[in-house]
User: Fold this.
Amino acid sequence: MLRFGLPIADARQLIVDLLASPIVTLLTFDQLHPRALEIADAHGLPAAYDAHYVALADLLGCEFWTADERLVERLGTDFPFVRWLGSYPIA
Assistant:
């Protein structure tokens, strides 16, 4: 959205169109894509795929470890399950 100046309303419509397509998936994405879009918009993420990882971990109730320190910084304390690999304790 940020990179190409796509308005949030257009992004939402693209998700609706994608979900209406005849693609068969193993997971139900009707919660994942809208949640990822909310996260990307609220935190100014330049790429929605980062937000999809966060949304998926949130939906699955698991930790998400990433080497992307800027992503962790952008999310702040809103997602305590998102961890930076650089903070992983080394034995």
